[in-house]
From TrEMBL:
Residues 1-21 are annotated as: Disordered. This is Uncharacterized protein. The lineage of its organism: Bacteria, Bacillati, Bacillota, Clostridia, Peptostreptococcales.
Amino acid sequence: MFKESMISAKNKKSNPQSRMNNPKFLEAQLIQMGSILKDPSKVTDKKMKQVLRMYDTYIQWEKSKLN
């Protein structure tokens, strides 16, 4: 889903919702996201690294908000 949202941001003409209704596509995206979140060291894409840093910052912010 990370890549899908980045692609849709670049290409405004595509309709990402039609792909999200496909259960096989959604499952593949969830598996890919899960593997990326388990081991972010394998990510080589610059945008993906930025997204992961933002996600980590958000998680830290949420934890600090609870304390």
